[in-house]
Structures are given as C-alpha cells and as structure tokens.
Amino acid sequence: MKLYIKNMISLRCKMLVKEQLKQLGIPYIIVELGTVDLLKALSPHQSLILKEKLLLYGLELMDNSKKILIEKIKNIIIKMTQYGDDNPKINHSNYISEQLNYDYTYLSNIFSEANGITIQQSIINHKIERVKELILYNELNLTEISYKLRYSSVAHLSSQFKKVTGLSPSCYKKDNHTRTLNLEDV
Known about the structure:
- The protein is of the alpha+beta class and 186 residues long.
- The chain has two domains: 1-63, Alpha-Beta Plaits (2-Layer Sandwich), CATH 3.30.70.100; 66-186, Arc Repressor Mutant, subunit A (Orthogonal Bundle).
- It has nine helices and four strands, in the order βαββαβααααααα.
- Strands 2-3-1-4 form a four-stranded antiparallel β-sheet, sandwiched between helices.
- Helix 3 packs across helix 5 and helix 6 packs across helix 8.
- Residues 178-186 have low confidence and may be disordered.
C-alpha cells in the first residue's frame, strides 16, 4: 500500500515520518519525499492516529488524487533543484511528464489552478533558492553553480536571479557577507 503525504519536502520530514511509523508499529518498505510504501494496508484506526500525529508536524496524509498529483509535481521539482546533481538533460516539462505519465498541459493546468503559479515559475523559484544557498556556502563560483543547476550561461542565471530577488548574485553575496560580519561584531 502506498501513502501520500503533503508537505513532506525534506530529509528531516522523511526521518520524522519514519519515527512516527516506528512508534505506531506500522511496518514500511521505503519512505521517500511525499510517499511511503507500506507492507500492508492500514486499519482505519491506524490511519486516523497516523493522520493526527503527522498533522502535529504540519504533514498531511492525502487521499484526493489531484492533490496527490500536485504533491508529486512539487516533490519532483524539489528533487530536481535541491537533491539532484544529475538534473534531467531534457527540458523540465518533458521530464515531469515522463516521471508522472501524464500530459504536461494537464499537469500544468492543475498545478497552476492549485498554487497560483506555473510549474516553470515554481522551478525557477526553487532554483533561485538553491543558488542563494550555494552562494552562501561559498564553495562554488557562479560558473560552477550555473553548470550544476543547468543554466545555459552565467548571464542567464544572473538575469533570473535579479528578476526574482531584485539583486545580482554578487550583491546578494556581498549583502549577506556584510550582515554576517555585523552579527559577529555584536
């Protein structure tokens, strides 16, 4: 049996879900972002208790097929931008469509309807958050970050970064570095 869990977007969420399953004595095969494969179906009582426990942590057990599909889209975007060093070599729309076995137009329409932004804008937002993170780590230069996140060029990354944040990557890095120095001076 497969469970679908909304807002399960990080490795910490996976650990939390595993812990709750273990506490409730629910055997599972694997816990992934947004999904859990169970060895057997939950009883109605187990389902209710698990649902209540997960809600305490902002996670939601889902049963609506459209909501499940939207969460799958979000999880693919997160995996592509946050955890995937081997980002797809095909365009994002084809990749998402292939992963979910649905027409991209259908996926795009239900995603936009539910979230108020397009899948592409969500991908851009996640990529920019990842760029911010990598800039602050200061382990990669902008060219390496551009390559890692599959931008066509550093100029494209910089342009998109400025559109989303209002700052160039170098200004962002400088501002955050200044803030860090100011905090250290306190």
